[in-house]
Amino acid sequence: MKVAFKVKTAEGSCPDIEGSPVTGDASTTTFFAKIQNYTITFIGTFEKFSMSRCEEGWAFFKRESVNWCFTSVTKTDVTYSAAEASCVQFGATLSGLESQLEANAVVSILQTSRSQKQLQSIYMRIDGQRTEECQETPTTENCMSIDGLTRHDKGVKNFDAYQFMTDSSAGATDGKNCMVSVCDGVNDGKIEFAECEISTSYSISYMLCGCRIDNVSMQFIVPTLK
Length: 226
Prior knowledge:
Low-confidence stretches: 31-35, 45-49, 215-226
CATH superfamily of the largest domain: Mannose-Binding Protein A, subunit A
Number of helices: 3
Shape: globular
Helix content: 10-25%
CATH topology of the largest domain: Mannose-Binding Protein A, Chain A
Protein name: C-type lectin domain-containing protein
Distance between the termini: 40 Å
Organism: Caenorhabditis elegans
Number of strands: 12
InterPro entries: C-type_lectin-like/link_sf, CTDL_fold
C-alpha cells in the first residue's frame, strides 16, 4: 500500500523523517460518500503510520476542537434516557450535530434505513433535552438557543446545523422536550421535538451515538439492541 499526504512543516525547511514524527493532512471518502479530512502522523520509518479514524460503521468528523465519530444504533421505541444509556454502553454518548456535514450524514443514514425497511417514516433520537426552566418558557431568546437544552455532546455550540420543522420552541406546551431527527420523504433531516420518556407521538427506533477519538486504534462494534 502506498500513502501520500501533504506534510506540515516550516516554510523552506524539510522534515527530519528519521528523527521525529511527521504530521500531514490527508483525506478519504467515507461510507456516506463524503470526503473527510484528517491528520496522519508518520512515525520513525516508512513501515507504519497512525491516524485519527473511526472503525468500520462509524463516521469520522473533524470538529473545531476534537475528532469525532458517530454511528446509528437501533432499539425499538427507545426513550431519551434509554438512548443515552445505550450509547454509554459502547463508550459513547448521544450525539448532536456540530456541522452541516454531520447533519447530511444523518440524513443519509435515515434515508437508507427507511428505504431498506420500506417504512413510511422513521425517527432518530439525537442529543438535546429542554431544561426544566425552558419547558415553562420555551419562547424566550435563551430557551430558543442551544443554551436552552441539557446536552451530553458538549462539542455542539449552536443550532447552525439544525433545520427545525417549525422552530426550536416547538412542542413544549405538549410535553415534547427531546430532540429527534425526522425522515419521512418530505422533511428528511429536519429536527422535531418528541416526548422524552414515552413515545406516543412517534415510534422512535434509532439513536445517534458519538464519541471523541485521539490518534489511537479504536475497537468499536456497530450495535443493534433488542
